[in-house]
C-alpha cells in the first residue's frame, strides 16, 4: 500500500465498548500478562484494537499471535481494511476467541498490512502460583 499507514495504537483488552453516538472506544481490563493454572492454558476471549493514520487505499490486515521463542503461530486472522484518505484515523478491532497457549513464556501479538509489519505487543504467559 502506498503510502503505508502508521500504527498509532495497539491495545489488548478483555472487553471493548464502542459508544454508539461518538464511536469512541472504552477499554476494559487492558492487559499484557496472563496466568494459567496449568499448560497448555486456554484464554478467555479477548479483543485486539488498533488505530492507523496516513494510509490510503485498500489492504489486508493480518493479526498473528505466536510464540516468541520458536515463532509458532497459535492464532491468525485476516480482514480487509479501507483507508479513505491520509487524514482519517482507521480503527480495526479483532475479537479473538479462546486461544490455547501451549507453554508459559512470551508471545507476540503482531499486526501486518499487506504482509508488512505494522505493530506488535508482547503477551507474557505465566504459571499461576498455587495458594497453599
Quick synopsis:
The chain is 0% helix and 64% strand. The protein is mainly β and 132 residues long. It is globular and about 50 Å long.
Present the secondary structure layout:
Layout: E1 6-18, E2 25-30, E3 33-36, E4 41-42, E5 46-53, E6 57-67, E7 73-83, E8 90-96, E9 100-101, E10 105-113, E11 116-127
Parallel strand pairs: 3-11
Antiparallel strand pairs: 1-2, 1-5, 4-9, 5-8, 6-7, 6-10, 10-11
Radius of gyration, whole Å: 16 Å
Structural class estimated from helices and strands: mainly beta
In DSSP terms, counting alpha (H) and pi (I) runs of 4 or more, how many helices? 0
Strand elements, count: 11
Distance between the termini: 55 Å
**Low-confidence blocks of residues:** none
CATH-defined architecture: Sandwich
Q: What is the highest CATH level, the class? A: Mainly Beta
CATH topology tier name: Immunoglobulin-like
Average pLDDT level: 94
Query: Secondary-structure element sequence?
Result: EEEEEEEEEEE
Largest sheet: 5 strands, mixed
Q: CATH superfamily name? A: Macroglobulin (MG2) domain
Could you describe the 3D structure shown?
- The protein is globular, with a radius of gyration of 16 Å.
- It has 132 residues and is mainly β.
- It starts with 5 loop residues before the first strand and ends in a 5-residue tail after the last strand.
- It has a single domain (6-127), classed as Immunoglobulin-like.
- It is built from no helices and 11 strands.
- A 5-stranded mixed β-sheet has the order 3-11-10-6-7, with no helix packed on it. A 4-stranded antiparallel β-sheet has the order 2-1-5-8, with no helix packed on it.
Amino acid at each position: 500500500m502506498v503510502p503505508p499507514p502508521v500504527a498509532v495504537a495497539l491495545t489488548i483488552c478483555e472487553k471493548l465498548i464502542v459508544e454508539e453516538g461518538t464511536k469512541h472506544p472504552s477499554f476494559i481490563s487492558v492487559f499484557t500478562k496472563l496466568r494459567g493454572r496449568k499448560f497448555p492454558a486456554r484464554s478467555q476471549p479477548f479483543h485486539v484494537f488498533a488505530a492507523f493514520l496516513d494510509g490510503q487505499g485498500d489492504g489486508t490486515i493480518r493479526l498473528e499471535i505466536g510464540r516468541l521463542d520458536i515463532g509458532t503461530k497459535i492464532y491468525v486472522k485476516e480482514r480487509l481494511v479501507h483507508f479513505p484518505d491520509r487524514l482519517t484515523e482507521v480503527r480495526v478491532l479483532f475479537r479473538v476467541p479462546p486461544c490455547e497457549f501451549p507453554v508459559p513464556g512470551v508471545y507476540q501479538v503482531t499486526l501486518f498490512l499487506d504482509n508488512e509489519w505494522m505493530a506488535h505487543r508482547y503477551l507474557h504467559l505465566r504459571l499461576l502460583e498455587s495458594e497453599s
